[in-house]
Each structure stands twice: as C-alpha cells, then as structure tokens.
Amino acid sequence: MNTTYTLSPEQLKELEAVKSRPIDTSDIPELSADEAEKLHFKYYKPVKEPVQLRIDADVLHWFKSSGKGYQSRINAALRQVMIHELSEKKAK
C-alpha cells in the first residue's frame, strides 16, 4: 500500500523551525577515544580482497592450531599492527 501525505504550510513551517534548531546532546555520555575506536571497528565491515601470501610455516601452523578462523585471526593481527603504526604516525 503506497500512501502519500501532504503537509500543510503550517506543518512545513514547523518542520523548518525544528531543522534549524541545534540538537541537544547533553544527555549523551561522551565516549573516550578508545571506546569510539572500538565502536568504529565493531560496525566497520571492510571489503575483503583475496590475495596469495607467503607466510612462514611455523607462523601459519601457530595460527591454524587455534582452529577455524585462522585467516580472520591473521587479518586481525595485521590490522592491529596497521592501527599501531598509523597512530604512531599521527603522534609525530
């Protein structure tokens, strides 16, 4: 069912007034930088790109020894290194 609503001029004027009013965020707690970063990565879903990668056998065995998901664990470890290096560059 497709319903179309028409707003009166008064309703449109009221909406415009609301749109220009600043949003009150005083009841929202501030996030620390660490909390904000965790939220960002919790909902961030990067595009995966298949690659062929040569890894030392002992390193690969260690990741595989934890069971399924070893590729995701390798990616997470690489991401931690990337984030660390990016934060070091920012600090300079």
Short description:
This protein has 92 residues and is mainly α. It has helices at 9-20, 33-43, 57-64, 70-91.
What does this structure look like?
It is built from four helices and no strands. With 92 residues, the chain is an all-alpha fold. The protein is elongated. It starts with 8 loop residues before the first helix and ends with a helix. The mean pLDDT is 86.
How far is it from the N-terminal to the C-terminal residue, by CA? 58 Å
Number of strands: 0
Note the quaternary state here: single chain
Order of helices and strands: HHHH
Rough outline: elongated
What count of helical segments does DSSP give?
4
Mean pLDDT equals: 86
In the predicted model, the low-confidence regions spanning at least 5 consecutive residues are: none
Key terms:
4 helices; mainly alpha; 92 residues; elongated
SSE map:
Elements: H1 9-20, H2 33-43, H3 57-64, H4 70-91
